[in-house]
Automatic annotation (TrEMBL):
Gene3D superfamilies: Hypothetical protein, similar to alpha- acetolactate decarboxylase, domain 2. Residues 1-129 form the PPC domain. Keywords: DNA-binding. It comes from Massilia horti. This is DNA-binding protein. CDD domains: DUF296.
Amino acid sequence: MHALPLRFPARLDLRAALGEVLAGHQANAGFVVQGIGSLTAARIRLAGMDEMTELHGDLEILSLAGSLSPDGVHLHIAVADAQGRVTGGHMGPNCIVRTTAEVLVALLPDHRFSREPDALTGYNELSIRRLDAR
């Protein structure tokens, strides 16, 4: 495992930027171990819902974690608004960094992650393959 601490600047779409991390480091598998920072906008899909909930304003990232594969990301986020209300769920696109986002990614050079259809859940789920050590 290779630890990769990252800082993302203001006005960046955080989910999109995390989706590009593997390609930028010639990796095929990774996990977001934790993330903190702030957002001006967040799109979060709450548990069991089909539509995204949109939040705007000063938002603090309390937690960010998930898996990174070359064909997609699966990220969960919890944010607090200026009144301290917390919202959490699946991180959607257009989560825009307000001041900074500090994220620790663990790259897994001996693995390849992919997102593949799962008949049981009906979703594309994580598929884990160990690469041959040559």
